[in-house]
Amino acid sequence: MMIHDKLINDYKFELVEDHHNPGSGNYSVRVKLSDDISTVFPYLNTLLYDTWYDYKNRILIGSRNKIRHAFRPHEIHVAVLADRSNVADIAGEAVDFVNKAWKEHDHIMPSLIQRKLPAVYEIYKFLPQTNCKKCGYPTCLAFAAALRSGEVKLEQCPLLLEPEYSRNKEHIISLFPVD
Ligand code: SF4
Fold it and tell me: Whose CA is nearest to atom 4 of ligand 1?
């Protein structure tokens, strides 16, 4: 089988608003790929931080430069943008990262260590459940869903930073590492 240098040869990108919370002003970049990139996931699993890897369903989520990236066979999702002026650069960097990993994969130890994402309800159980909206989401359940998909940081719920919720916060962190 011929091994190509580039895994991603063509892509399109779009700025997308947080679907859990329309109108929030939270945006991310979705990069759509013509090529299936799942063969590189075990190598990205090694290179990224705080990964959740579901081998069977071919989903990998991890941090790169402290930004959450979600990888699916034909998509890269770069979560929560502080600056929306450089969307093309962000998409290009994500693609370059994948292509570089693929090009150098002979020198990277692949990791098949899997960690399944917790269910949204498992996260929700430990949120304050006040639906106070201080996180910018209309409900704690919506925040839990966004947290699960790596689109927000735990600290975005200010109540969790209060002493009375410190055990809840620890529980959520134990479900998965959060930046
Ligand atoms: S700030 Fe926290 S308690 Fe309030 S709605 Fe958001 S997740 Fe729920």
Answer: 132
Q: What is the pLDDT of residue 129?
A: 96
SS3 32: strand
Determine the atom of ligand 1 nearest the C-alpha atom of 138: 5
Q: How far is the CA of 131 from the centre of ligand 1 (A)?
A: 5
Which pLDDT tens digit goes with each residue over 30-54?
A: 999 999 999 999 999 999 987 888 8
Q: What is the pLDDT of residues 69-128, one digit of tens each?
A: 999 999 999 986 767 788 999 999 999 999 999 999 999 999 988 777 788 899 999 999
Give me the torsion for CA of 174, 56, 69, 15, rounded to 10°.
-130
Q: Ligand 1 test: best mutation among 126, 143, 154, 171, most atoms within 8 Å of CB?
A: 143
Total domain count, the chain:
2
Sheet holding 11-17, edge to edge: 11-17, 27-33, 75-78, 67-72, 59-64, 49-54
Please give the residue range of the domain that contains residue 16: 11-107
Is 60 inside any structural domain? yes
Q: 107, 128, 160: which is the final residue of a domain? A: 107
CATH number of the domain where residue 164 is located = 1.10.15.40
